[in-house]
Design a protein that fits this description.
It is a single chain. By secondary structure, this protein is of the alpha/beta class. It has one domain (2-133): 3-Layer(aba) Sandwich (Rossmann fold), CATH 3.40.50. It is built from five helices and six strands. It has helices at 10-17, 39-52, 86-92, 107-115, 125-137, and strands at 2-7, 25-30, 60-62, 76-80, 100-103, 119-121. It has a six-stranded parallel sheet, with helices on both faces. β1 (2-7), α1 and β2 form a beta-alpha-beta unit.
Length: 138
Amino acid sequence: MKVLVIEDGATDIVEVYSGLLRSYDLHVSFVEPITEANQDVVFNGAVEYLSLKGFDKDKIYRGFSGCREIISSVDVFFVDSLEGKVNDVVEMNEIPKSKVYVVTSDENIRMEYERSGYKTLIKKLSYILVTMRRLERK
């Protein structure tokens, strides 16, 4: 299964998604926090950190440049709450909402996105793994 993680924190990517590296075709869209002044340094540092942790550099994208062509072939999207910008990201990149899981530890944010029709998960590897197993059985 092809997975695209859309996240703005390199540490979260490692902690929450590194358990998927062996079993899935894992791609990462790293969306730099808007407040970062030097986004080149942030992105390049994130790529180096992620590659040291076992992520494939060729499957790490800066925002959506370079990964737009794979969107149609992705089976599941795990999307960080992105400071409330999930709807914008999904609509602008024509991501099928039915394949999106908003992943956050904040219960209020999860409830908000559920009311908007999104599936949500608690931001922990165990919840991601259970979801992946369930999707594989479908």
